[in-house]
Amino acid sequence: MTAVDSRPSVDPRPSLVGPPSAGPGRRWRDVVAAHVALTKPRIIELLLVTTVPTMMLAAGGVPSLWLVLATLVGGSLAAGSANTLNCYLDRDIDRVMHRTGHRPLATGAVTPRAAFVQGLVLGTVAIVWMGLLVNVVSAALTLFAVAFYVVGYTLLLKRRTAQNIVWGGAAGCMPVLIGWSAVTGSLAWPAAVLFGVIFFWTPPHYWPLSLRFADDYAAAGVPMLPVVAPARVVAARIVAYSWAMVLVSLALVPVAHTTVVYAAAALVLGAGFLVEGYRLRARVRRGVDARPMRLFHGSITYLTLLFVAVAVDPLLPLPHLFG
Questions:
Q1: Does 260 map to a domain?
Q2: pLDDT band with cut points at 50, 70 and 90 for residue 100
Q3: Number of domains comprising the chain
Q4: Does residue 2 lie within any of the structural domains?
Q5: Within 13 A of 114's CA, how many CA atoms are on the CB side?
Q6: Which of 188, 190, 198, 218 is deepest in the core (most CB within 10 A)?
Q7: What span, in angstroms and rounded, lies between the C-alpha atoms of 92 and 106?
Q8: Distance of CA 297 to the CA centre of its chain
Q9: Whole-angstrom distance, CA of residue 115 vs CA of residue 165
């Protein structure tokens, strides 16, 4: 989809099973909540926000509601699998970082074995579900997305390179390809453009967060860009990637033959994103608090509204700007 740089000096585990007087119903609710938390529901929500609009663009309107439901369920299971396995593999650094110290594996609310099994089961069900109820192309893309996030990002990139979130972020771009293929059974250039939008959006979305919690990442030995580079370099790259994101978002106008509504939304939202990026860079240059979380939260609003425009545009009885 977060700043003290040392382990808590006291046992950080919350009383997930409640006090001795708590009944079994309460304990079961806590166990279920802990397992759900492993899937990182908020990240899943953001992934689904990009899937449905892409399906509407691919269909040129509203696709089969059953197909949408099947794709969302399969996508949620796949994302839950990838996030659970990410928590399993990162449980050591999650205990060190205060931003992640509340996660179920860090607190001991869920055992590593249980988390590992949960991740494998969710992933297997997701791929079979997509293959049987959506199509083989979407199932193959789902398998790649889970494998790339777990192996490519979590195992190979995250702890080895400052470019981790750049290339590892490609896993978060996969829902648009899955959504497009769910409708068409294939891929096309509009899906590739939307993939590019999210690809270039991910660094300026995540680097402000890692800038805010650079001490956390440094304590855990994770070489996020703000840990290994000066804040000025981070801010400059945020601006550069923001420009690339905006330009790619505008490329959707001729590629997908959108109307003026999407074009205007992409221009206005992109301008607002760039303003925030330049504001952050200016504050870094002045040596004052960059307030990076403002851009982090704003980036989520940007992506949500941009994809709302993607969804609405095919429904409008307006002429296309190109062709």
A1: yes
A2: confident
A3: 2
A4: no
A5: 13
A6: 198
A7: 7
A8: 13
A9: 24
Q: How far apart are CA 5 and CA 317, in angstroms?
A: 55
Which tokens hold the place of 242? 């923001």
Cβ-contact 100, 106 below 8 angstroms: yes
Question: Hey, what are 60's tokens?
Answer: 């040129």
CB 57 within 8 A of CB 311: yes
Burial level of 182, CB count in 10 A (0-12/13-18/19+)? buried
pLDDT score of 19 more than 70: no
Structure tokens at 161: 């390179």
Residue 184 neighbours by CB distance under 10 Å: 17
Domain carrying residue 39: 31-185
Count of other CB atoms within 10 angstroms of residue 266? 24
Cα four-point dihedral sign 47, 53, 55, 57: negative
Phi, psi of 131 (to 5 degrees): -65, -40
Residue 249 CB-half CA count within 13 A: 29
Confidence at residue 1, expressed as pLDDT on a 0 to 100 scale: 37
The two tokens of residue 41 are 């529901």
- Mark whether 166 and 248 lie in a shared domain: no
DSSP code, position 155? I
Residues 50 and 152 in one domain: yes
Q: Cα–chain-centroid distance for residue 259?
A: 28
238 within domain boundaries = yes
Q: 7 pLDDT exceeds 50?
A: no
Q: Rounded to an integer, what distance in angstroms lies between the CA atom of residue 126 and that of residue 309?
A: 28
What secondary structure does DSSP assign to 178-232, as a single string? HHHHHHHSS--HHHHHHHHHHHHHHHHHHHHHHHHTHHHHHHHT---HHHHS-HH
Task: Give the pLDDT confidence of 273-284 residue by residue, as tens digits.
Answer: 999 999 999 999
Closest Cα to residue 203, out of 187, 230, 226?
Answer: 226
Spatial separation of the C-alpha atoms in residues 102 and 147, rounded to whole Å: 26
